[in-house]
């Protein structure tokens, strides 16, 4: 396996003579294998090595044992080791992320901080073939583009992944042959985490159908990477006029390009303005392509406080203006206007309703269940929404987190509320407690016409 990994390193030119390499090491089989192999390659490449271990503050004594193991391993091989400790669950709440996302973000911050401090050139992390396959599946389920199908790249900036062409079974067999121990993270078997469910359920079933399923997914990912590089180069040749907080695209020229190239141009434009693209999905790209084909003056809202305007022959990407808090009481029919758009309210007898609306921006509430004056307002501390027929509740803050709503967008998100109980978080979720039934006598129809939303289907 050592030759296989070295050939992969050479193929992607991961290491150069004299490189300083930060090794991310958790104590698990993959990272211990990576650590051991880089120690073996140290003299050949004249490497300077330093390890970073992150204690996530989740697994208590077990995490402390992992930390102690990593320190001992690093002393044995005379590799400096820096340990970072953080309460990841608390950090996830602060950042509005899942624990998985917060842990990953924090780890890479630590790796990069140590790399800069030491003046090193590379960060080595221990993703393997199964990790690549899991990531491809995860991206596909989220609605990813061709770029997402590339999964995990062997090299990305300072980050290298020498084990990406190696199966987990090969890694564990190699450690056994070399007489190397490793730690087992019990959370890897928890189905609370999405990736664990993909690994233990989906990939297991796929492998049962075809034992080479992981290899085939990885091969497809490498093909997608090669195709994406061609599309990327074509997109980079497209002229984008940029200024501070703003980018302008020639709409007609954009529409003359192939759809995949259009999407990449749009992605690059958003990334350039926002400095990130993690929350940009296929739906965002598609809505902008539809915007370019549609009416002048329409807008699309994006994460990162951005919006896109269709302005005559141009598509204009820019920061959204600051929106103000609002709170409007209402009891009857009418139109209630805010900066983001207009809420239209109409009360009708149940007999006048032939079918329940499936439009995400039109909802029907059972008037019999409305006991207080309704408000059309922005979020407040303590807001919650009923999520099932048995009355189960979810905090509005958690709903926003689950739906990956940008923190800036949350502050002025339009809500229809009855006290602290949310009847409708516009465009996100409608309360189960207010849905109409056959026993409903009067129906309140709530429709939101947003100024900055063109995808209201």
Explained architecture:
It is a single chain. Helix content is 40%, strand content 22%. With 457 residues, the protein is of the alpha+beta class. The chain folds into 3 domains: 183 residues, 3-Layer(aba) Sandwich (Rossmann fold), CATH 3.40.50; 82 residues, Uridine Diphospho-n-acetylenolpyruvylglucosamine Reductase, domain 3, CATH 3.30.465.60; 124 residues, no CATH class. It has a 6-stranded mixed beta sheet with strand order 3-2-1-4-6-5, with helices on both faces. Helix 12 crosses helix 13. The radius of gyration is 26 Å and the shape is globular. The chain starts with a helix and ends in a 7-residue tail after the last strand.
Which band does the percent of strand residues land in?
15-25%
- Number of discrete domains: 3
Give the class from helix and strand content and strand pairing.
alpha+beta
Q: What distance separates the N and C termini? A: 52 Å
- Which strand order does the major sheet show? 3-2-1-4-6-5
β-strand number:
22
CATH topology term of the largest domain = Rossmann fold
Total helical elements: 15
Key descriptive features of the protein:
alpha+beta; Rossmann fold; Uridine Diphospho-n-acetylenolpyruvylglucosamine Reductase, domain 3; five-stranded antiparallel β-sheet; 15 helices; 22 strands; disordered C terminus
Write the layout of secondary structure elements.
Blueprint: H1 2-11, E1 20-24, H2 29-45, E2 48-55, H3 61-76, E3 81-85, H4 88-95, H5 99-118, E4 122-124, H6 129-142, H7 146-149, E5 155-156, E6 159-160, H8 168-178, H9 194-209, H10 213-236, E7 241-243, E8 246-250, H11 251-255, H12 259-274, H13 282-293, E9 299-302, E10 306-311, E11 314-319, E12 327-330, E13 334-338, E14 341-349, E15 362-366, E16 374-377, E17 384-386, E18 393-395, H14 396-402, H15 407-410, E19 415-418, E20 421-425, E21 429-430, E22 442-450
Parallel strand pairs: 1-2, 1-4, 2-3, 4-6
Antiparallel strand pairs: 5-6, 7-8, 8-11, 9-10, 10-11, 12-16, 13-14, 14-22, 15-22, 16-19, 17-18, 19-20, 20-21
